[in-house]
Structure formats: structure tokens, C-alpha cells
Specification:
Distance between the termini: 44 Å
Number of strands: 7
Radius of gyration: 15 Å
Helix content: 25-40%
Strand content: 35-45%
Low-confidence stretches: none
Strand order of the largest sheet: 1-7-6-5-4-3-2
Number of helices: 4
Largest sheet: 7 strands, antiparallel
Mean pLDDT: 96
Length: 148
């Protein structure tokens, strides 16, 4: 097992139609407004930006995100990431009851030395940190969608 590789999946039930959710998720530079752990998104060009995140644990992760797929008809947004983490992340949106089911999939290899050093012992804590970040993101996006 590669202790520095992570696979994550989160499912968010959101109270808005897929088109509205997609519109919110494709505006990555707005994430810091509604997702507390996304501290900064600095756009470099039309398809690339630098993202800094920090959850409960006292460390930041910074990576360059490059758009790989933007397909509103299929409800898919996907990025490639390089930096403190290398890998990819994808949102897939489907109609779910009165709203949207947003599935977030991510596969990353951790490059940040601190996380690599504590890869085995810290793995459960790092996974919990990610879950807490995703929970806050779902709550923030829900509130954002209801306010708009």
C-alpha cells in the first residue's frame, strides 16, 4: 500500500437543480466565499489557478489546478492538480429528488514533506481532516445556493 496516495469520495445532496449547482462549482475563484477551508484561489489564466486550502490541522496545502474537463451537459467538472498534492478531482452532478446529488471523487499523491513524514501514523487523522473539510464545504454550498 502506498501510504501517501489517497482516494476520496463524497456525496452531497444539495437543494438546487443541477444547472445552478454546476454554475456555482465552476466558479472556483468564488469557493473562498462559501467554503471556509478554501483560503485562496488565484486564477493564472482561463483554465489554471493556484489554490490554497487549510482544514482543521495546522498546515496549508497549495496546488496548481488545471481544468481537464468542463461539460455542463454531462454535469462534470474535472481538474488536474500539481504541487503539495498531485492527482485529480472531479465533480459529477445528477438530478436527485428535488435537488442535485453532487459526487466528488479525488485521487492524489501527497508531496508535502510533513504529510509524507507522518504518512502511516497520521493517515486516519488526515482522512478525518478531509471529511471535516468536505462537510463544511457541503454546508457552505448549501447556504450559498439558498442565498442566491
Amino acid at each position: 500500500m502506498d501510504w501517501t496516495r489517497y482516494r476520496f469520495r463524497s456525496l452531497w445532496a444539495l437543494p438546487a437543480p443541477p444547472a445552478r449547482v454546476y454554475e456555482a462549482l465552476e466558479q472556483a475563484e468564488d469557493y473562498p466565499r462559501w467554503w471556509p477551508q478554501v483560503r485562496e484561489v488565484n486564477r493564472l489564466d482561463d483554465t489554471t489557478g493556484v489554490v490554497r486550502i487549510r482544514s482543521v490541522l495546522p498546515y496549508d496545502l497549495t496546488f496548481t489546478a488545471r481544468e481537464v474537463r468542463r461539460d455542463p451537459a454531462a454535469g462534470v467538472l474535472e481538474i488536474a492538480m500539481t504541487g503539495d498534492v498531485d492527482g485529480w478531482a472531479r465533480w459529477t452532478l445528477t438530478a436527485g429528488g428535488p435537488g442535485t446529488l453532487a459526487r466528488y471523487d479525488q485521487v492524489v499523491d501527497v508531496n508535502k514533506p510533513l504529510l509524507r513524514r507522518f504518512a502511516v501514523a497520521g493517515r486516519p487523522v488526515f482522512r478525518l481532516n478531509h471529511r471535516l473539510m468536505m462537510r463544511a464545504g457541503r454546508r457552505g454550498l448549501t447556504a450559498h445556493l439558498q442565498a442566491v
